[in-house]
Amino acid sequence: MKAGIVGLPNVGKSTLFNCLSNAKAQSANFPFCTIEPNIGVVNVPDPRLEKLESLVNPERVVPATVEIVDIAGLVKGASKGEGLGNQFLGNIRETDAILHVLRCFEDDNVVHVDGSVDPIRDKETIDMELQLKDLETVEKKLEKVARVAKTGNKDAQKEQVVLQQLKTGLEAGKSIRAITVSEEDREEFVRPLQLITDKPVLYVCNVDEGSAVDGNAYVEKVKKAVAEENAEVLVLAVGTEADITELDTYEERQMFLDDLGLTEPGSAKLIRSAYSLLNLQTYFTAGEKEVRAWTIPIDATAPQAAGVIHTDFEKGFIRAEVIAYDDYVNYGSEAKVKEAGKMRVEGKEYKVKDGDVMHFRFNV
Ligand code: GDP
């Protein structure tokens, strides 16, 4: 999974990126890397993985990961080539979800590009750039399709109607996700365009330290403004979170969080929200060599889950041996679970549940 961080300059994007991809914040025995300065691979925090590790004692533990891309340089006019925006807009297209950071903190030392703190105006500025970029894509496609439609091609005519609808919506300042298109048409004509404003979005309200728990008036405004979008709003004190990740030990970080009245780092909350935004869940494999978390869609079947490990596993899928996470922990080992008759054998139709510990049997 890949998520792109967008927002105006100086709203806290890089701070958030650094804090998410800070090696110190990641458990020491987990592999971690930053691919490029603006791309990081973030481990998905999951206490269940640590629990399984303590039970199995594997050689290594591999958490699920999310790739985060810091998309800097989005400013007014980016879609028209202002700043570095246009170049970065291309990067957003490759992401699965968007984390839209909004400045909801006041600080005279941090300059706002438009002179005052106003998350709603900021959001509209960014949305407009993204919509204009999408409009460009839609118009290009529409031109091609219209030529074919003219020849009497029924499919092209159908597509033309949908594209025209998208164009009208975008021109009226709507994001693609807010335009009503039938599921069928969306699948056939809209999805392949990989439009930026069609991607699920999570609004991250960057607040001052004192508002980390309850938010503030700016956050309330944002919540109201996005109510119709069916999007999630997350309150994060990004600057404070960054300070926390600088602390050396887990205990120190936990104490800082306690002081603030938080139960977990915002990065954990953020990644969890991104998971639910994308309808993702986790299953585990647990052997002596490796205990590992895998990411799958919520409605994935057992063969699809196997396919995440290797496509051959999916093709040759025979059956899955499944232990519910709670059973694994309650009985303490795979052997004991088996003894108790709690290991299930599931077939091709099985819908994997969050936390399942699985073995796959397959033909090669
Ligand atoms: P970007 O341009 O969106 O990547 O913004 P940066 O992450 O570089 O942040 C811009 C400035 O705002 C930096 O000086 C940060 O230290 C500061 N900043 C970021 N988040 C916060 C915050 O939550 N509170 C305050 N007061 N300052 C912040």
TrEMBL record:
Gene3D superfamilies: 3.10.20.30, P-loop containing nucleotide triphosphate hydrolases (3.40.50.300), TGS-like domain (1.10.150.300)
Domain annotation TGS: ranges: 279-362
InterPro entries from the UniProt entry: ATPase_YchF/OLA1, Beta-grasp_dom_sf, G_OBG, GTP-bd, P-loop_NTPase, TGS, TGS-like, TGS-like_dom_sf
GO molecular function, one term: ribosomal large subunit binding
Keyword terms: ATP-binding, Magnesium, Metal-binding, Nucleotide-binding
Record: residues binding ATP: N10, V11, G12, K13, S14, T15
A Gene Ontology cellular-component term: cytoplasm
Main function: ATPase that binds to both the 70S ribosome and the 50S ribosomal subunit in a nucleotide-independent manner.
Family: Belongs to the TRAFAC class OBG-HflX-like GTPase superfamily. OBG GTPase family. YchF/OLA1 subfamily.
Record's protein name: Ribosome-binding ATPase YchF
Lineage, uppermost ranks: Bacteria, Pseudomonadati, Bacteroidota, Flavobacteriia, Flavobacteriales
